Amino acid sequence: MGIDTSNANTSIALVPKSANCPPYSHVHIPPEHIPEETRILPNNPRTQAMRSFQKVTSAFTEYPAKGLKGDKKSTFYEFLTMGTVPYILGSATFMALFNAAPSWFPNFNKKGARVGGNKLALGVLLYGVAKSISKNFVTKPVKWATGIDTEMPYEKVTYTIPNSKDDTPVPMFEQHNVFESRDFPRYDKLYNLKEGKPRNYYYDKIAKKNGLGTNLEASDAEVKPLIKDVISRSSTAKSLSTYVWGGVGVMLAAQNSWDHFFNALSKKSWRRFTPNPNENKFINLVDRGINTGKNLWRITKSFGRNFVKASKELYNGPATEKGFNKHAGKFALGFAAALSILGAANTIYGAKTSGDRKMVIDSDKKVTVD
Amino acid sequence: MPNLIQNYVNNIGQGISSVNNTTKKYYNNLTDSNSDNLLAPLDGKGYLVENSLVTYPKELAKDTYYTAKSLQRGITGKANDHELGKLNDLGLKLGGLSIATYLMTKRQTPKQKAMEFIGFGAFLASMAVWPKVALQWPAQLVHGFNFRKQYVDEQGRKKYVTQDPNYIPIDLYKGKRKSEDLGHIADRMGIDKNEKDRNELAKEHIRKVSVQNNTLWMLTAGVATPVMTALACNRLEKPVGKFFEKITNNKVNKLIDKIEEYNQSGDKKLEDELITSKMDNESGKKLDALLNMKKGKPINDKDVDAISEALTVGLDNQTRQAARLDLGYMLSSNQTVVNEKTVNSITDSITKKLDTKYGEGYTSQVLDAKKLAEHVDNFMGQNGRPANGILSAEQSDNLRKSLNDFFGETLKNNTTMREARKEVIADMFFDSVNEVFEKNKATVLTDEAAGYISKAGQTIRKYRAFDETISSASHFKVEKASETLAGNNWGEVTETLIKELNISPKELNEAKSSEELTAQLFTRKLEDIAKDEKRYKKFITNISNKMTELDVKLDNPRAGKRPAMDTIIDSIARNHDKTAAELNGITKTDSKPFFNLAQRIAGENIDGVFVGTVKDAKIQRIKTGRIGSIQNAYMRLLHTADFFRRAEEYNKTNIGFSGNPKLDKPLIEKAKKVLMSSHSGDFYLKFETNNNVNFYKALMWHTFLSGDMSNATKDAFKYVDDAGKVQERTCHEVFRGKTTIPQRITRWAQSVGKLMGITENAFLKNHMIDHASSIENEFKPIEKTAFEKFNKIACTPDNMLYNALKQKFNSNKWLRMWTTVGSIVLGVTLASQFAFGKQDKTTQTNKQVNNG
User: Fold this and answer.
1) Comparing C-alpha atoms, which of B779, B765, B744, B784 is closest to residue B701?
2) Where are chain A's structural domains?
């Protein structure tokens, strides 16, 4: 109790110079001590953008290059990160499937095919956006209520094993979340989280917030099972709700209101800029920029306006329909919302009730009996 | 040593019973003379999963149970990472199902609805099939092992053996089967039998090939899965459509049987099912609420509009106008409303007139509004203050006279005004009173009238409910919409046509640009087919077989039962007639308050003609507009094909037509164009042959009226019966019963010829009298309408093919494009296997060093 050994470096590289070992094990341990660079990152949009960028670029370049070679240093993390590739390529392919062919269609058939294609392409986009945003419907309330940010990011830095004597270790960056694994949460990263505060500062905070008690002797040991519970429940809630929210995105894109937006987006609606012959190039360039900005603003406004209209259309259903056909949109929204709300509530409930609290003798200095 | 083990056993025995059995094995081993076994590790509980069609259901059941358990453990906060991963898959399916369910509500036909789920299913299937077909099997063929082999670990978690290259549980390959034997795998990999560390090399090879294949899977799945999904859906659309067409037609036929039974028996239970349960009670409530609100009260034009609208909800505008007309008559009245506004209205009217003539402010000199109000009030008091201020015709006349007297008195007392002016002003006053009284004419909705309207509403709602039931059947059978019998059959016939014409992709690409090019291609192809008797017979038989399928599907012909379409038409007629009769019956006296409405719905039967009625419109829509126009287009196509063959037979034998080659050659050329491309406008213009009357006559005769038919066509529809007798093959025709295709073709051709020939400026008069003297008497005037002519001439064969080619081009283009993309991805994926697993230089060097 109190002493965390989950990340202690107890293993010693004992590599006998045996001929039976794979070739790389002959190589010596890096000559210099490599400091621990793995660090917790602030959970903000900037971090999220940087992490996404790093993951996506690596997934499309570095990892496939290694993987296709069958590199010895390819890891499971790389394989998992490459899961982004089918997601992005798949979305693009779906959009292309609905939109590419009409270019060759005879003139009269183009329009109908394009409108349908545009809606489906928008559906693919809104699916991704809704799925991504809806994660917050679970994680934010859980964070507010329990203090546990299930999306707390950290960057893991590892060094590759050199291939030869002269090889220099190369740092590898992996983007993880502290609580991404229920089996192995990175508890070690939560000690000494704040400078000048006690070692168990984070665990104390979580224990207090979730009613486990204050001034606990070993708050980390008390909080760890609670964290596991929260990870399990919140992950369940996210898995079930975010895909349904993604579905709501597709449903939203299927509404007729978007036809106006596609009109606003079309080439013919673009207000063209005609350079003024009496002005110099710079002024014309600035005016061109302003014109482009105005067009983009017009399109953005149209998106916003039609987003609201489409949402109402989805909620209200077609006026000509009745029964399930009319209220299907309401059901879908209600179902998605219920999954998020119930999922978050269940997680919070778990955090507030998990553990054997009846055994507590002193709530200020929790001592439990087994 | 024995003591140590003894202690160990004792300790374990106290707490952990599950380990007991295992430790017992060790204990027992003590007596074994071969103590080597003591050093062997315990057998793991993990095992490799054997995936085959036999084990699939069991594995599926296990996986489903595991997911359900994971959900339960996830909700209670106990699920581990592996279980949470399963819940992610569950979420994906849940999201997909919710999308499919919602989009299903937006689709109209059962097939479209089903396709939403099939699409989602195809997506899931593609996700599973792609790595198996494009990667796993080829890799197994080339490298000798299955890189997607699954295993179940000690904790019961099913995983892929090679998913984590840093942890491949190769110890599970215990050689139970060949596919689990490292030695065998090494053989398949081509690793030398004498190689040192052969197993290590095999393991490394497995790792490498697995990493490469897993990477390629991630790189290709994004393109392959959507493409496979789309292509699968594309392929599945037709069989799914056929399946649902059959299901829906059976359902509709059962409904029609019920309708027929109801028509015959008037069964109450069936009436409930077919009519009463479908009635629009909501609009009934609205109408009755409106009537109750207005009952006994004066109503104006707007109120009458509102009542007629509520009465005719769901009916067309013309029918609503008929109802409005009836209500206008029913609710007309000579009563007048007099209330507080009446005096003001009179004063305002007279003031306006006086101001215009004598300038502003003149009224006060001649009229005291207060006294006028008192006068009116006194009058109302003397007449017992009628309810709502409604005066009878007599009372309102009295008030009118009394007001004139009142004003005459006022003018009389005015001594300063000239008499002539007094007369002018008196006239003005008289006019104003009349204007206001006219405006205030009060129509009162009496209880009796409200009762009639309510009853009519009930009749109309009943009519609409039954009409809706009949329409639900007729819509699926004939309407111009997706997934109807008629629409599907048109698609099948045109598809057969394209197939039989044997149009190449290049020809398709050229012809789809214009109707003229299509006509040229069609003519060329038909001429080719006509030259080959066997091919021609196949052509005309296959196409006509497809065409007659529609008749059978529409009518569901059964011995002793009425054909379905006859029931539909009869039911429409009955429903309209019954409604009209009921509407005409709503009265206590001889008057018919809903005469116009009844007339609009069913009209009077004058020699079987119901022109301009809803009944006629509905019946004609089905009989002529839909079935007629399709059948006419079909027969035109067959007749065109027959003409091409007839021309070919004439070329070979010189028998047929006029026998004069100088006339026949241009006539055949012209007739081919007429049959292939002429629209009704061309028929009216007589195909620009006005400068040659005789040629036109001959053209019409030989193309349409002669009744001649090619021998090949006649033969194509003949067969030899069991008695060895040559018979004509009959088929079922909607509204006619058993007919033959040659009969149908000839009937169509002759009716077009006759229809277009009988005009005021009859080119054909003499000709026809020569050949068919009774033709003029055969036609009633009604059948010579422009619509009938347009309908008989129907869709031109070139237009039919042109539209079908455009459609074909679109789907072909899409299909070709994505098949190409899919093929490239598949090709690259398959070819990659031959590049995978190659050893790099370092490994090779090490191998050489190790091998000495």
Assistant:
1) B765
2) 26-359
